[in-house]
Write a structure and sequence with these properties.
Length: about 350
């Protein structure tokens, strides 16, 4: 109930600000998204385990976007359907203000910046922000303030856990962060710093109890555009746990990409290497874009001589309708199956987001 009241309170404030400023335009739309994931397990590893573990969720929502001068307000109320349960929620809530000198954004939304397919060490250091084979940019409560100064873009903000509040629980983490990026037509250089605050949260099960933690992180990234459409980029991150006085989740990544343009077809070849606490990782990907109709990519990603998987992703567009298909193969270096072994992971997502 508190979460619903907080969302409605923010909704009323943002709507009132836009209304008092004079609404210039109103856009209304509706959409849905259905996601299904199947994990195919090895046979005979556990007699009680199923052959496939399915996971499915669906969302039905509507879009309401108001514009008033240099202000914008977006709200996406919806219903989440998962495990035969229906839960109303606000998919997104965002109030934005734009001026010649600064911009401001407040609400619930997702964010991304930084280079890298395997890892992204220039993004804000958040709990479970990525996993092997897939970068994850979580939905967060945010306040983001940006100021352009000539060729610099200065940004500061506050992120907070939106997943826990969606289930009417106390946020598991908060993050204060700032970054500065210098860009010109050839080179981009950025510095980022953040502080992750995780309060102590006792749970029903002792193993799920979250201990208090404060982590400060420094990160940097540089990218350069070279002749013949080559692009080089590298980033690094150094988080420090202040309470336990140790370094956690450090890592660095370097990559090179090359684009080929053939009429309405875009081919991109990408190779990356990274080094972190997990060890030396590498990946090679080839992607193909067909105008505004499809984006297909395939490649391999490995971790030293311990793990090697194939990854394929395809997305097809028909106006406001899209289909995403992804597949992660079994570990091709695994010599002996275990209870956690799998043959592959197949994910399918169907979405529609249109104007009324």
């Amino acid at each position: 109930m508190r979460k619903a009241i907080a969302d409605l309170f923010f909704l009323c404030i943002a709507f009132s600000v836009c209304a008092l400023s004079g609404i210039d335009s109103v856009q209304v739309g509706a959409g849905f998204e259905v996601q299904h994931e199947s994990i195919f397990l090895q046979k005979n590893t556990n007699e009680y385990a199923p052959d496939t573990i399915p996971n499915m969720a669906g969302t039905v929502f509507c879009n309401i976007e108001l514009s008033a001068g240099n202000q914008n307000f977006l709200v996406q109320p919806g219903i989440l359907v998962k495990e035969q349960k229906f839960r109303p929620f606000f998919r997104k809530l965002r109030y934005s203000l734009f001026t010649d000198r600064f911009s401001l954004s407040i609400g619930k939304d997702s964010f991304s910046f930084g280079e890298g397919i395997m890892k992204n060490y220039f993004f804000v250091h958040l709990p479970q922000s990525d996993r092997f084979g897939k970068k994850i940019y979580p939905l967060v409560w945010h306040t983001v303030f940006e100021v352009p100064v000539k060729q610099f873009l200065l940004t500061s903000g506050i992120f907070a856990d939106a997943d826990s509040t969606a289930f009417r629980k106390v946020p598991k983490w908060y993050s204060l962060w700032a970054k500065a990026v210098y860009t010109n037509p050839v080179v981009s250089v950025g510095l980022e710093a953040d502080a992750l605050l995780q309060p102590e949260l006792p749970e029903t099960a002792a193993s799920a109890e979250q201990k208090k933690a404060y982590t400060c992180t420094a990160a940097a990234e540089i990218s350069a555009l070279l002749p013949y459409q080559f692009k080089l980029y590298a980033n690094a991150q150094l988080p420090v746990d202040l309470l336990h006085k140790n370094i956690t989740d450090w890592g660095t990544l370097a990559g090179i990409s090359k684009d080929f343009l053939l009429n309405s077809i875009t081919l991109s070849s990408i190779a990356e290497v990274s080094y972190s606490m997990e060890g030396f990782a590498y990946s090679v990907f080839q992607s193909m874009g067909l105008a505004d109709y499809a984006q297909i990519s395939a490649g391999v990603q490995g971790l030293e001589a311990k793990k090697l998987v194939g990854i394929m992703q395809a997305e097809f567009f028909i106006s406001d309708f899209s289909i995403k298909i992804g597949y992660i193969s079994k570990d091709m270096l695994e010599k002996q199956t275990t209870d956690t072994s799998y043959l592959g992971i197949l994910s399918i997502a169907v979405s529609f987001n249109g104007d009324v």
